Amino acid sequence: MNRTTIGASGGNGVHATAKFDAVVIGAGVAELYQLYPLREFGLHVRAIDAALGVGGTRYWNRYPGARVDSEGYVYPYILSESLYKGWSRSEKCLSQPEIERWLNYVADELDLRKDIQFGMTVQSAHFNEAAERSVVAINKCPSG
């Protein structure tokens, strides 16, 4: 299997690389849903997110009255029975704070944080034909 190399350069000029089977960009609703099964398939996987926590759009959009326009039953992942049964929504269309709490609950219950690199942005990504692998360059966010 071809692996992906992630390279990061620190502010001190130090470069570090790591190899992964899959890289997920982001730590929002869809990305957390992808991270877990990839890991369960036995793949060495990493998610990269500019934010300092999970949530994606729900992390960044914190304005008063922010909520989703889909009914709350859309969000519970059926990745594990305990995850599904361990959370109950408080209203039909969830508010931003509740969605963010839900995604933090998912990340904690499924132990996803260990596979997420927060406070990083993707600078570039390309396939290196000679090495037969994708190369992803990441940078630390100014706020991260």
Beta-strand percent range: 25-35%
- Write out the CATH superfamily name: FAD/NAD(P)-binding domain
Overall structural class, as computed from helix and strand content, comes to: alpha/beta
Shape: globular
Mean pLDDT across every amino acid position: 80
- CATH structural architecture: 3-Layer(bba) Sandwich
What is the CATH level 1 assignment?
Alpha Beta
Biggest sheet strand order reads 2-1-9-8
Rg result: 17 Å
Number of strands: 9
Biggest sheet features: 4 strands, mixed
CATH topology: FAD/NAD(P)-binding domain
Distance between the termini: 32 Å
Q: Estimate percent helicity.
A: 10-25%
Number of discrete helical segments: 4
Domain count: 1
Unreliable parts? none
Secondary-structure element string: EEEHEHEHEHEEE
